[in-house]
Specification:
It is a single chain. The chain is an all-alpha fold. It folds into 2 domains: 2-117, no CATH class; 129-213, no CATH class. It has helices at residues 2-80, 82-85, 99-117, 129-153, 159-185, 192-213. Helix 4 packs antiparallel against helix 5 (159-185), helix 4 packs parallel to helix 6 and helix 5 packs antiparallel against helix 6 (192-213). The protein starts with a helix and ends with a helix.
């Protein structure tokens, strides 16, 4: 009887230990899964917050880009005429949607418009403008020679000085007129080659026409 009792106690203790071990294993598994779920939930919340921040940044960038593009388009219309530009064009997919790249391109567009408003774009005028520069210089010098001939034909006391001043003024007016023409036609400032062509045309026309029409006056 005593042996059976001891065996029953031992069996009970073994079963209790096995049950405790199973409970502990289940508790550990529950805690591990709970921790994993909490970590996954935290990562999901962080990703959600990052996505929300990215969405807000994208919305702010889109609004900023729209405002800046509209202002640049209005500035372009002020420069070349609103009838030529028309309404602000619709946006197209950006191949480089990084905020830094978008803002850099907007700054470059603004810089180009600033250069255009000041009459100097980072482009070269066509090559034929050098011929046009020479023609402008020659035309103004021809007008100056005609003015000098008219002055010399009169009876003004200082007609020779006035005629000489008119000839020099005709040569000097060439680069000024060239700058106005290039700024209006091509939105650029005169380059050294064009100025040289203009002055050369003016001097050549002045010397040649003066030798023909002002000799002996």
């Amino acid at each position: 009887m005593t042996t059976e009792y001891h065996d029953a106690i031992a069996a009970y203790l073994r079963e209790r230990d096995d049950a405790d071990a199973e409970i502990k294993a289940a508790t550990d598994t529950y805690r591990a899964e709970t921790a994993a779920l909490e970590h996954a939930a935290a990562e999901a919340r962080a990703e959600r917050d990052d996505a929300e921040a990215a969405r807000r940044d994208a919305a702010d960038l889109a609004a900023e880009t729209d405002r800046t593009a509209a202002a640049l388009w209005r500035s372009l219309g002020d420069l070349v005429g609103h009838r030529r530009t028309g309404p602000t064009p619709s946006a197209e997919p950006d191949p480089d949607p990084e905020p830094a790249g978008v803002r850099a391109r907007l700054r470059r567009a603004d810089r180009l418009l600033t250069l255009a408003r000041s009459g100097e774009l980072p482009i070269e005028a066509p090559r034929h403008t050098e011929l046009g520069a020479a023609g402008i210089g020659a035309a103004l010098s021809a007008a100056a020679v005609a003015l000098a001939a008219w002055l010399l034909a009169g009876d003004l006391p200082a007609r020779h000085a006035a005629a000489a001043l008119g000839l020099f003024a005709g040569i000097a007016a060439g680069p000024l007129a060239l700058g106005l023409w290039l700024g209006w036609q091509y939105r650029v400032r005169p380059r050294p080659g064009q100025i040289i062509a203009c002055v050369a045309g003016a001097v050549t026309a002045t010397c040649g026409l003066a030798a023909l029409f002002l000799r002996g006056m």
